[in-house]
């Protein structure tokens, strides 16, 4: 188990409104196909109570996912480990940024208990980015996989991991725990990285996905892209080709929705037909599965994605 390092982290979440990459203007209104039903239902409230009682976080809540009502009502959730404060300040993300204080070695057990209580057949585990930790939290990821398997052997596990700052040993720690799906999102196209993800690196993320396949050639890898931040169709198609060249098996593509006025504006709302184009294009270049629609998020229909449905 790696030591907790608590390295000081400087977080900035700002962008320049006059950045030329934002020059195309903001659409007037959100289109009808992006409307969602407010979360409700017996299962939704039961899952919410369970998360609270186990003192757990979910990305469904922390990232203000529009699909929380549908997913929680069907008794599926994406658990957010390693606390609720991220050491990075991506200009699109609703998760709180700052210097984290949590490092809970008992968290994997509590997540596994929640997964067992929900009788899940497919569990998704993600985290905030923890650049303050020696291994970026890789040990907690691996231990969570092991604890879920011990508590519910038939449950398949997907992990959505950060880039671990390119640490190959940290990645190996997670891959060797044998998740059923290893997910790492590139989020956007190369040209927009310094605007959207200033503390990340496009090529480092691609290298992580490629290295996961080198460690375990049988691993199923996955990534995701947001659209509507000023990218072109040609840039999106290049990003998809880059993911396939890195051996990525599954890709998700969804519409970026602005969490607040302090985040990047939406520059375009893609139509359902445009998302259908990316589904076709992704299949043509060899992805096992492409989940592309306005409200798609990385863990939306994760079980069906992994099964290639």
Q: Could you characterize what this model shows?
A:
By secondary structure, this protein is of the alpha/beta class. The protein has one domain (38-306): TIM Barrel (Alpha-Beta Barrel), CATH 3.20.20. Helix content is 34%, strand content 13%. The protein contains eleven helices and ten strands. It has helices spanning 42-53, 59-62, 68-73, 107-118, 138-151, 168-175, 193-196, 202-215, 233-245, 272-284, 302-306, and strands spanning 57-58, 78-81, 85-86, 96-97, 122-127, 156-160, 181-183, 221-227, 250-255, 289-292. The chain has an eight-stranded mixed beta sheet with strand order 1-2-5-6-7-8-9-10. It has a two-stranded parallel ribbon with strand order 3-4. Helix 4 (107-118) runs parallel beside helix 5, helix 5 runs parallel beside helix 6 and helix 6 packs across helix 8 (202-215). It starts with 41 loop residues before the first helix and ends with a helix. The model has no long low-confidence stretch (mean pLDDT 85).
SSE sequence, one letter per element? HEHHEEEHEHEHEHHEHEHEH
Low-pLDDT parts are: none
Q: State the share of residues found in helices, binned by percent.
A: 25-40%
Total number of distinct structural domains = 1
- Hey, roughly how much beta strand do the residues contain? 5-15%
* Shape label: globular
- Under CATH, the homologous superfamily reads Aldolase class I
Give the C-level CATH assignment: Alpha Beta
| Largest sheet entry | 8 strands, mixed
The appropriate CATH architecture is Alpha-Beta Barrel
Q: How many extended strands?
A: 10
The SS-based structural class is alpha/beta
Distance between the termini: 37 Å
**How much is the radius of gyration in Å?**
18 Å
Q: Briefly note the CATH topology name.
A: TIM Barrel
**Which sequence of strands runs across the widest sheet?**
1-2-5-6-7-8-9-10
Integer average pLDDT: 85
